[in-house]
UniProtKB/TrEMBL annotation:
Residues 1-140 form the N-acetyltransferase domain. GO terms for molecular function: acyltransferase activity, transferring groups other than amino-acyl groups. InterPro entries: Acetyltransferase_Butenolide (IPR053144), Acyl_CoA_acyltransferase (IPR016181), GNAT_dom (IPR000182). Gene3D superfamilies: 3.40.630.30. This is GNAT family N-acetyltransferase. Transmembrane segments: none annotated. It comes from the Bacteria.
């Protein structure tokens, strides 16, 4: 899938992803993946349904779904580069991703966010209805302390 709009290209072609650019953003600017090694970013892209936003061949934004394409999808690593914010790109990206053929009819779509509840609620995301059912193993600052094993 590739859509061109207002000089931007939105695509689900993982071959277009600028892995170095995505790594730079995630490892230096995100609050959720500070210090992530590039090898892990490469592996995550290879094993996810990825979406990119491009302007003049530059990576302007990125997002990926971890999914079995049958019952479950987890949205993560969503960002728009600062110079392209305020143009509605995150809304357009979300619209395209939510209607992607591989993501239709799933039982569960989920994500975690610290600061973008307003964006995601526009697409039907809500607070978890039964948080007591959820469990996790969370290793804080895993990439910064050099330990990426359980």
């Amino acid at each position: 899938m590739e859509i061109k709009e207002n000089g931007f290209i939105f695509s689900d072609d993982s071959n277009l992803v600028d892995v170095t650019g995505v790594h730079h953003y995630l490892s230096t600017q995100s609050y959720w993946a500070k210090g992530i090694p590039i090898e892990l970013v490469q592996k995550s892209i290879a094993n996810s349904l990825c979406f990119g936003v491009y302007k003049d061949s530059k990576q302007a934004g990125f997002a990926r779904w971890v999914t079995d394409k049958a019952t479950f999808a987890y949205l993560c690593d969503v960002y728009i580069e600062e110079e392209f914010r305020g143009l509605g790109l995150s809304k357009k990206l979300m619209s395209l991703m939510m209607f992607h053929p591989d993501l239709q009819g799933l039982r569960t779509y989920c994500l975690a966010t610290l600061d973008a509840h307003g964006l995601y609620s526009q697409f039907g995301f809500k607070q978890v209805s039964s948080p007591e059912k959820l469990m996790e193993i969370r290793i804080q600052d895993i990439y910064l302390n050099g330990n990426n094993k359980i």
